[in-house]
Amino acid sequence: MLKLKKKDMVLVIAGRDKGKKGEIKEIKSGAKKVVVMGVNIVFKHKKTTKDKPGGIHKLEAPLDISNVRLVCPKCAKPAGVKVLFQGGSKLRACKKCGEVIV
User: Fold this and answer.
1) Quick check: 21 and 71 in contact, CB under 8 A?
2) What is the pTM of this model?
3) Over its length of 102 residues, how does the chain's per-residue pLDDT go in tens digits?
4) How many whole angstroms separate alpha carbon 22 and alpha carbon 54?
5) What number of CA atoms fall less than 13 Å from residue 50's CA on the CB side?
6) What CA–CA distance (Å, rounded) separates 92 from 82?
7) Residue 34 belongs to what H/E stretch?
8) The domain 9-72: what is its CATH number?
């Protein structure tokens, strides 16, 4: 079970964009990578085709999942995530404040 989900707010803790916050746009679970909005921007050079113009396009490149930490909605601090078992289901909770993350 991955502890991060789409639309979670995360903080980048390592790399070129260290300290930036953003929302998870996509999770690539097989490669254990995440794409975060506005973080790790790269330039892609594209050729012109019949229907699409070419040029230099900006896009978000994937980050390793170990380089981001979930920002708790209650305490607003980057924290680890623990898994709680309640009533036969798994719930995510903040390790700092113990609040259940929906």
Assistant:
1) yes
2) 0.85
3) 578 999 999 999 999 999 999 999 999 988 999 999 999 999 999 999 999 999 999 999 999 999 999 999 999 999 999 999 999 999 999 999 989 998
4) 28
5) 0
6) 6
7) strand 33-36
8) 2.30.30.30
